[in-house]
Amino acid sequence: RKEVEQDPGPFNVPEGATVAFNCTYSNSASQSFFWYRQDCRKEPKLLMSVYSSGNEDGRFTAQLNRASQYISLLIRDSKLSDSATYLCVVNRVTSYDKVIFGPGTSLSVIP
Amino acid sequence: EAGVAQSPRYKIIEKRQSVAFWCNPISGHATLYWYQQILGQGPKLLIQFQNNGVVDDSQLPKDRFSAERLKGVDSTLKIQPAKLEDSAVYLCASEGANTEAFFGQGTRLTVV
Q1: Is the alpha carbon torsion for B6, A4, B97, A47 positive or negative?
Q2: Among A35, A88, B8, B104, which residue has the least CB neighbours within 10 Å?
């Protein structure tokens, strides 16, 4: 089993739709969590960190459930420009920070 | 603030040839990562440096891949000899204290 798993996708949704991505992690020692966005043929960029209390940034809401080892990202009112791959990232600290990427979920927002 | 610089952007080589990639991280970032991203997959960590020391190279195919970070700044990743399955984007990222990881634009390698 991979340490970080995500919905397989791809997700194809109409403009204005609400879409949710799910991510699970297997190592309970994981300490910090992020969503990165990767546009086609571009490098990944941080979208938002995920906090235990949940956090919102405009149309984006991230939630963390440590007990279930589950992270989610909700996008409301989808825009064409949201089309990208969304990567779930988990940071596990041992003697150093170990950053592990999920396989990503592709989103296409359709006019 | 200057970002992570990588070169070359693209490289096409024949199998069994050698290739090297270069990365210049963001100034002051102690942590440097090399990732391999195969089309349709998430980035896979190859090696992680903390300053000029290796902290994780568990997924680096050491029979053909090598990396160094002299003086704890720039880094090079080498493949010798290359195989067809090495075709991928090689991403370098750097991270400072209390920052997220910033990625370079990557080097797209095609092995034919």
Answers
A1: positive
A2: B8
Cα–Cα distance for residue pair A43/A45, rounded to 1 Å: 6
Asked if residues B85 and B102 have their Cβ atoms less than 8 Å apart, the reply is: no
Residue length of chain A: 111
Quick one: tokens of A31? 């300490």
Structure tokens at B45: 């960590």
- Residue to mutate among B103, B105, B107, B109, with most A CBs inside 10 A, is B103
In degrees and rounded to multiples of 5, residue A27 shows phi and psi of -100, 115
Inter-chain contacts counted by CB atoms under 8 A, chains A and B: 43
Chain B interface, best mutation among A21, A95, A99, A106, by max B CB count within 10 A? A99
Q: Do A97 and B95 touch (CB under 8 A)?
A: yes
B42 to chain A nearest CA, in Å? 4
Query: Which pLDDT tens digits describe chain B residue by residue (112 residues)?
Result: 579 999 999 999 999 999 999 999 999 999 999 999 999 899 999 999 999 899 999 999 999 999 999 888 999 999 999 999 999 999 999 998 878 889 999 999 999 9
**Helix (H/G/I), strand (E/B), else coil: B71:** helix
The tens digit of pLDDT for each residue in A48-69 reads: 999 888 899 999 999 999 999 9
**Exposed/middle/buried for B7, CB within 10 Å: 0-12, 13-18, 19+?**
middle
